[in-house]
Every structure is written in C-alpha cells, then in structure tokens.
Write the structure tokens for this entry.
Amino acid sequence: MRAVRIHGYGDAENLVVEDVTEPRAGSGEIRIAVTAASVNRIDAKILRGSMAGGEHLAEPTGLGFDAAGVVDEIGAGVTGVEVGDDVFGLGRQTQAEYAVLTSWTAKPASVDWAVAGAAGTVAETAIRVLDLLGIGTGSTVLVDGASGGVGSVTVQIATARGATVVATASAANQDYLREIGAIPVVYGDGMPKRVRDSGMGALDGVVDVAGKTSIEHLTGLVDDPAQVVSIANFGAEEAGARVTTGGEGDPFAALAEAARMLERSELVIKVQTFDLGRVQEAYEIIETGHTRGKLVLLP
Ligand SMILES: NC(=O)c1ccc[n+]([C@@H]2O[C@H](COP(=O)([O-])OP(=O)(O)OC[C@H]3O[C@@H](n4cnc5c(N)ncnc54)[C@H](OP(=O)(O)O)[C@@H]3O)[C@@H](O)[C@H]2O)c1
C-alpha cells in the first residue's frame, strides 16, 4: 500500500509517499481502507522532531492520527462493527491506503468522507476539554485560537450544548468566528480586556487551544485557574491551569457525539483536500499555524 512516511526529522521536503506492508488490526482494533485522513498540527510537530526529545528517528515511520474509511479487518474482541462498514475515528499512521483505528464510530451516510476524515482528532479533543470544564447549557466559555481545527469544532460543540462562546482569531477570521456562532475577539495584546468588554460577563471556563497567550492572562479571566484547560501550553500547570494531552474521557462516546452532530449539521467542518502526492503542500500549510478548518489527504 502507499503511505506517507519520513526517514528522518525535518521539514515538508522529508515527507515521502512509498510502498509499505499493510498494518494488521490488533486486539480491540479494526483496520480500514482509508478514504480520507486529516493532517493535524501534531503531525507537523512529529515531522519536525519536536516530540522526540532530541533523539534521531530510529526507523522510518508513518504519520497521521485520524481517518475515515471502510472496515476491512476486525481485531480480536471487537464487537458492534462489521467488514464493509463505513467508519471514522482515531488511530495510527493513518495517512496511508490502509490504517488501524483504535476508536471509531459509524460514519453517517450523509456526511462527506473528507469531513469524517477530518473530524476524529479535533472532535475528540474538543469534547474532552469541554467535559473537563463542565461546559453545558448556560455556561460561558472563551476559546482562544478558535478558527483552526480544534478551535472551530470546540466553538460549535459548546454552542450546541447551550453555552455562550467568545472566541479569538486574527482579524481576518473574525467573520468566520461569527459564522460558527461565537462572539469574535482578536487575539494578541489587550485580548483579555476585549473579552471583558465583549459583554460576556463572568466566564465559567477557558479553552487554550493555541497555547500562545500568556497563561496568567487566561487564568485572570476566571475565578479558579483550574477552569483554564490548555491543549498546547505544557507549562500551564505552573499557573494552576490544567493541561490535557488525552487519556481522559471516552473517545468512542466522543466520536459518536461528533457523528450525531455532523449528521444534523450542528457541526460543520470546512475541509481542504489533497491527494497523497500533494502531502508536502498540506504540511506546509499546517506548519503556518493559521489554517482555517481542516486539511485532509485523500489516499
Ligand atoms: N493536547 C491535545 O490533546 C491536543 C489535541 C489536538 C491538538 N493539539 C494542539 O492544539 C494546537 C491547535 O491545534 P489546531 O489543529 O487547532 O491548529 P490550527 O488548525 O493550526 O489552528 C491554530 C489556531 O490558533 C490561532 N492562533 C494563531 N496565533 C494565535 C495567537 N497568538 N493567539 C491565539 N490564537 C492564535 C489561529 O488563528 P488565525 O488563523 O486566525 O491566526 C488558529 O485559530 C496545536 O498546538 C496542536 O498540536 C493538542
């Protein structure tokens, strides 16, 4: 099968598409024939070697953490899904013609393949963070860094839960924030004052998506610093905020919630698609840190 791979850390030029052996589904896993796999910021960080703690890459590796596709192998102990089912979810080395998923849900027939391929990581992350913060009907929440993959989905899920959302992005993305249901605010110097002036009142929670705003500026917006949850600032705990990198919550339940929302168009994910041969282009865009919506590879 063809797969996106790297033989060493570096920039987008290090990405190659090459033939490798298909992976096998282990216990509790399924394998899919991939129709769409997204490119996340974490993939760019892995490409750069930022997650490797200074070590060289020991052996060539594939990339990608989410995908949509058709089930073609079922691992031991898996129930509730059959060969031939359309699914999307989370897995490993998904930017390939075949990939193993570790959590999944049925893809509603009305949901486009590329959108389903885009949804896994961002929806699971958004739901995990909103659950940690206890965001629901009547809550007020700030999403800092809201026009990209995780942020735009977090805004929409919070809004669908009945929360009021104030959200930040660059000046160019203010209309987009309004479109997805948030009160828009420009990030950068003076952002906390602009949030206070937005008419939101007291905030119940802050989702630090971008990890770019000083954590003290964010904790200053809530009564309890633990009501700030960061997914990108790994020093945030020093200021009393919480950091999540996964492991909490139930990814199967989160994916099922995302599927229901996608089917009802309560969640709309903008996608830009690339065939595997254009993978370098997709990574160059994700590297900018200013993607609107999601980038999706179509193997
Ligand atoms: N911990 C976890 O479980 C987890 C899971 C998924 C992702 N992540 C991490 O979360 C981060 C965001 O991922 P993503 O996929 O949403 O990235 P993305 O699609 O590139 O979006 C980045 C967002 O950050 C905004 N931004 C850029 N500079 C900013 C600043 N100075 N202040 C506030 N916002 C700013 C961008 O707005 P403009 O485009 O308008 O500039 C955009 O809305 C990445 O670091 C990723 O690795 C963590």
Remarks:
- The chain has two domains: 2-107+269-298, 124-243.
- The first strand starts at residue 2 and ends at 6.
- The domain at 2-107+269-298 is CATH 3.90.180.10 (Quinone Oxidoreductase; Chain A, domain 1).
- The pocket of NAP is lined by residues 40-42, 45, 121, 125, 144-151, 168-170, 173, 187-188, 209-213, 231-232, 244-246, 289-291 (CB under 6 Å).
